[in-house]
């Protein structure tokens, strides 16, 4: 499943819990607080001054990498 900028942080973490590490690596340390669960990825990125497309690309690349490894 490809993630989108309009997805809620809570939704992303629900479908891809392994995304926590990637989000944290971008400085989004508060992703586990209740308020952030209702923000979209784009909103959360903008609050932190991060390009949402950069995070989105990293999250989806992580998924592509995991898919390739499982096919080996």
UniProtKB/TrEMBL annotation:
DUF1858 domain sequence ranges: 5-55
The region annotated as signal peptide is: none
The chain's coiled-coil residues are none
According to its UniProt record, what is one Pfam family this protein matches? DUF1858
> What InterPro entries does the entry give?
CHP03980_redox-disulphide, DUF1858, ScdA-like_N_sf
Q: What is this protein called?
A: Hydrid cluster protein-associated redox disulfide domain protein
């Amino acid at each position: 499943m490809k993630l989108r900028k309009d997805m809620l942080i809570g939704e992303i973490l629900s479908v891809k819990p392994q995304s926590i590490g990637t989000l944290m690596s971008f400085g989004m340390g508060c992703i586990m607080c209740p308020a952030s669960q209702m923000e979209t990825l784009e909103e959360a990125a903008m609050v932190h001054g991060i390009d949402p497309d950069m995070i989105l690309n990293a999250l989806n690349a992580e998924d592509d990498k995991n898919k390739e490894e499982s096919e080996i």
